[in-house]
Amino acid sequence: MAAVHKIMGDFYEDPFNLVALHSSLEDYELVYFVNLHLKTRFKRCKEDLQLTQQLSFPIFEWKDEKNDSYWSLITNNSAQEEDSPRSDLFEGEPSFTIHHLVPEYKEVDYFLKIEQDDFDVESSVLKPLLKTPKIITAYTVETDKLKSRNNLIFL
Question: Whole-model pTM above 0.85?
Fold first, then answer.
C-alpha cells in the first residue's frame, strides 16, 4: 500500500504583517499621504485584483529593494452594480452591492500588507500613520485568525 503525503496549506505562504486603515479618502489620496509620511513609493498596479469577473479591487505596490521587502495597499471595499430592474421611487437608477475583500473586517477601508522579515510595524508604520490627519485610525491585524486569508495572497 502506498503512503499518502499531504502538504499543509500554509506551507508555501510567506508570513506578512497586515495593517488595517480607516480613512474616508479615495485610494489615490490615501496613497499620496502614505507615501508622504512613510517615505514609501507606492504606485498603482496595471491590473486590479479580480476575485470574480465583475468584482475587482485596486492595488498599489512598492518594492523596497534596500530592505528587501514588498508592500501592498489595497482597498477592502468594492461596489458591484446590480442588473436587477427597480420598481420603486428610484426606478431607472443603478443599484450597487458592496463587497469586502476581508469580510471579517467590513469596517476597514484599506489594508496595508508588508512582506519583510523582522520588521517593527509599531514604530515604522503605525506611529507615522496615526499622526496623519486624514487617517482616522490604523492597527495591526492578526493574519493567522483570518478566514479569508487567501484573498490577501494576491501577488
Answer: no
Of the candidates 62, 151, 49, the one whose C-alpha atom is nearest the C-alpha of residue 114 is 62
* Cα gap 39→128, rounded to integer Å: 10
User: Measured between alpha carbons, how far is 72 from 70 in angstroms, rounded to an integer?
Assistant: 7
pLDDT digits (tens, 9 = 90+) for 75-112: 988 776 666 666 666 666 766 677 878 888 899 999 99
Residues, the chain:
155
- State the residue for C-alpha cell 467590513: 106
For 2, the enclosing helix (H) or strand (E) is: none
60: enclosing H helix or E strand: strand 59-64
The H or E element that residue 85 is part of is none
Give the span between the Cα atoms of 152 and 130, in whole angstroms: 23
Q: Contact at 8 Å (CB) between 95 and 81?
A: yes
- Cα separation, 153 vs 14, in Å, equals 9
Q: State the SS3 of 63-101.
A: EECCCCEEEEEEECEEEEEECCCCCCCCCCCCEEEEEEC
For cell 485596486, the residue is 58
